Amino acid sequence: MASNPVLSLRDLKTHFFxxxxxxxxxxxxxxxxxxxxxLGVVGESGSGKTVTSLSILRLVPPPGRIVSGEILLEGRNxxxxxxxxxxxxxxxxxxxxxxxxxxxxxxxLTIGDQIAETLLVHKRPHETLSRREALRRAxxxxxxxxxxxxxxxxxxxxxxxxxxxxxxxxxxxxxxxxPKVLIADEPTxxxxxxxxxxxxxxxxxxxxxxxxxxxxxxxNLGIVAGIADHVAVMYAGKVVEYAPTEELFRxxxxxxxxxxxxxxxRPGDPNQTVAPIPGSPPDLMHLPSGCSFYDRCPFHEDxxxxxxxxxxxxxxxxxxxxxxxxxxxxxxxxxxxxxx
Length: 340
Known about the structure:
Layout: E1 7-17, E2 22-33, E3 38-42, H1 49-56, E4 64-73, E5 76-77, H2 83-87, E6 94-97, H3 101-104, H4 111-121, H5 131-144, H6 150-153, H7 163-175, E7 181-185, H8 193-210, E8 213-218, H9 221-227, E9 230-235, E10 238-244, H10 245-250, H11 255-262, H12 302-306, E11 312-313, E12 322-323, H13 329-336
Parallel strand pairs: 3-8, 3-9, 6-7, 7-8
Antiparallel strand pairs: 1-2, 1-4, 4-5, 9-10, 10-12, 11-12
């Protein structure tokens, strides 16, 4: 029997109101993240991945704002919470590892002070927690994320850490309060492949040891293939395909997913042709009335230009595979020799 999701988004819309017009960065996103699972959210830059994650914690910078939808943490709608109540959620029940750890860490504070602060801010009203105890627990979590000699490194400043180590510090800071949900925004960006593998292995251990649910934001399909339980593919502010990871890679049903997979080099396959996706994403201020991928899609039909497809089951409701497409892409791919 399937467990209830720990985090659910229901028809979430986040728009940016500018002098040029309204950019629909997140335009009706619905997702479920289940306890102890990893949900990968993938797509090109500008597809709405990061804005979706920032919306969950209501950290969208102006001129953006959430205009409608629900953000449910175990049934509690975060979109309607007063700001004071939301501060008790951020960092305690939902933590986030931001894309650039150097800009997220304070260069004037030691690593120990920054990690310990999370505990001190979120301690219970009548809880007695000394700074010394908070630093001890900070050293303990640093050791768990793979930083050697953690006690001595508590007194160091961020510039003394490598990019991979700073990423681990951010993960430690996110985990120290044992959150229900960890949001990781491009956690392997700008890291070499060895450090990438170590970070991904760390996420697997986090799930196993802490039981944390992970929302993984990335443009790299290779990463989600090895770590995610389910994958949501985003394009132009919408989820265009959602499926269990193995099912999505075996039987992709949206043309955009096919295009992303074709653009990923496969080691050991000398006959593969790596193909870029033609054209550019649509202007979010002037989205077409039909399918947003129409101009870049090799499978489009006349109906696609005028009528936007819903996110609907493509095999059966039991399979959990959804796609936002009028065309049976998998059959078209076999018939026309297009796609992968």
